Amino acid sequence: MASKRTPQEQSVDPAAQQMLIRAEELHIETAFSRADAMAPCNIGGAGMCCKQCGMGPCRLTKEGQVGVCGATIDTIQARNFIRSIAAGSAAHSDHGRDMAFTLKAVANGETEGYTIRDVAKLRIIASKYNIPIEKRSPEEIANELADLYIAQFGQQRGEVIPTVRAPKKRLKIWRENGVVPRGIDREVVEALHRTHIGDDQNYEHILQHAIRTGLSDGWGGSMIATDVSDILFGTPAPILGQANLGVLKDDMVNVIVHGHEPTLSQMIVAASQDPEIIEYAKQAGAKGISLSGICCTANEILVRQGIPAAGNFLHQELAIITGAVEAMVVDVQCVMQALVDLASKFHTKVITTSPKVRITGATHIEFDEHKALTIAKNILKEAIDNYKNRGKTQIPQITEDLIPGFSHEYINYMLGGTYRASFRPLNDAIISGRIRGVAAIVGCNNPRSSQDYLHNYVTKALLKQDVLVVQTGCGAIASAKLGLMLGEAGLTEVGPGLREICETVGIPPVLHMGSCVDNTRILTVLTQMVEEGGLGDDIDQVPAVGLAPEWMSEKALAIAAYCVASGAYVIFGGSSPISGMPDRVSDSDKVLNYISSGWEKLYGGKLEFISDPDEMIKATLAHIDAKRAALGIQVYDATKYGRSGDAKMLALEELPLSEQRKAIYGTAAD
Ligand code: NFS
User: Fold this and answer.
1) Which of 157, 202, 553, 565 has the fewest Cβ atoms nearer than 10 Å?
2) Which residue, among 363, 279, 369, has the nearest Cα to 326 in the 3D structure?
3) Interatomic CA distance for residues 196 and 79, integer angstroms
4) CB atoms < 10 A from the CB of 608, how many?
């Protein structure tokens, strides 16, 4: 049995710690305590167990050992790995499919409550695929785009259409390696077929398809999900929000939306503002309805409407332990089965809504976009009716403000303004060394580590090294809770060069770019940086790194695969699912080496599992500096900057011009 940790060891978030203490008082289990009680299986955890057929499961713990069918450790590890990538891609992409169907239904006027919010984005996306836009109504364009997007899932031959948006050189690399996805479903199915007993038994060949499967997510299903969400619900732009459990209100009906798809949550936002519903809540004795989110659903409504985030993945149980949640409304993905049993100890109703997801013991109110608003109101009425059952509450009075909503469109706009929107200033800041590089720090919480600790440690250290940080998913919520998504953090939490940029542009040093499917926004940013010029002609040349310090989901592995295929260096924290046992390193090295140096040779990107956060930081900076050197741009030197900016300029005005220049540029020359 693993050892039991204190609440302070289980989470670095003080609000979470309060709830973990409360859980102990009430003798309630959480994912934290279950993780302590359940030692992970070190054979399965290292990818050394094969249960693909009924002759096994085979556990390959000895050097040179093979399975009953003769499968070697590298085949087994590669098979386990690609199956995770296939499941992750399936989850993201099925979400994308549902979004595409919703777009189609909205275009045909079949839905209740939805409209096409961002016509400009619709037209831009349609134009990328040569869909005619002139003299056509948004509905006509949306109809054709929806058909095109729906077709990508079942397409059998050719190339999934969003790949045309990748840098030209990148697309060429994919074509040369035979990994351009043909159809989204096809690649996921083929991953399952190849890993059935007696199929693909060459680990390099299996992993080549892992890349194609991941690409079908990143430059397929996930990209479609982001595009359509923006078209239907609006492309995010900065907005004030709040994060952490203190967003729950003692005198209001608290409803938490949890999961991933914005279709229902957007409608619950609309329904919660309906005067009839507010009145209904008042009649129940509450001051109104307080809506908040958990996980990526939180991000979807936070980045668009500023609806507060009650927390990230590991907050789902803690929110219920406050005793103040009338309903937790869930759809798909990252929803713990433990919620139902936990909720039974309080008054909280867990309401499942997806036709794909039921949880034994939960209330099921099925969502249907054709009657979206009516269903959303019914769900809220259930929550309001439950208000009277509330018992003792304990809400941690801890929240933090944040400014989320940095879509790639907004980043483009904010850097150049309406008339000169461009990535030029960002590229220039990297070239000059004010910004050393960019880190995308994304992904889950994992109760095997201390909640948020790795996210926060790595993020804070990289900011001090002038690395601009972009975030999505639960990692973004970790930084939000820490106050790193506020303009002030750009003055106090960063290195001198990055401070100049944050101060000049007026941005936080950590940019919240949305949910996990919105990692595709990062692909778009990287592509635009390449197209802007000065940082090479492909993504693998940009001084950037992707990190998932506390990953736990299969979706995270799918993201890793498509980021590597796109040319990124990806670092995962925690444990490696293909690590092998320490005493048999030689055998299991093959797969680990292949996804690192093997993939790097082919795609310029690589995946590494590094559990020590200091090593993660070191590897990130080394990679960024190596990419800078390869580009031949300024060697990063922290002492050169930090002397400009509004505050410093006033002091400098007193000096002669040559001294001013020297202070700002490090040289008196023009
Ligand atoms: Ni991403 Fe979002 Fe969070 Fe991890 Fe789960 S919510 S899709 S998988 S846990 S970041």
Assistant:
1) 157
2) 363
3) 9
4) 20
Give 565 Cα–ligand 1 centroid separation in angstroms.
21
Domain range for 518: 403-573+610-648
How close is the Cα of 198 to the center of ligand 1, in Å? 33
Q: Residue 638 — φ and ψ, nearest 5°? A: -65, -25
Note whether 358 and 417 are same-domain residues: no
When divided into structural domains, the chain yields a total of 3
Nearest CA to ligand 1 atom 2: 296
Q: Which atom of ligand 1 is nearest to the CA of 552?
A: 4
Separation of alpha carbons 82 and 557, rounded Å = 9
CATH number of 353's domain: 3.40.50.2030
3-state SS assignment for residue 70: coil
Mean pLDDT, each 10-residue run in order, the chain (670 residues): 86 98 97 95 91 95 93 96 98 98 97 95 98 97 98 98 97 98 98 98 98 98 98 97 98 98 94 96 97 97 97 98 98 98 98 98 95 96 98 98 94 73 88 96 96 98 97 97 95 94 92 97 95 95 98 98 98 88 65 95 97 97 98 93 64 72 62
pLDDT at residue 659, rounded to an integer: 77
User: What phi, psi does 2 have (nearest 5°)?
Assistant: -70, 160
**Among candidate residues 121, 133, 119, the one with its CA nearest the CA of residue 413:** 121
Q: Is 558 near ligand 1, meaning CB less than 6 Å away?
A: no
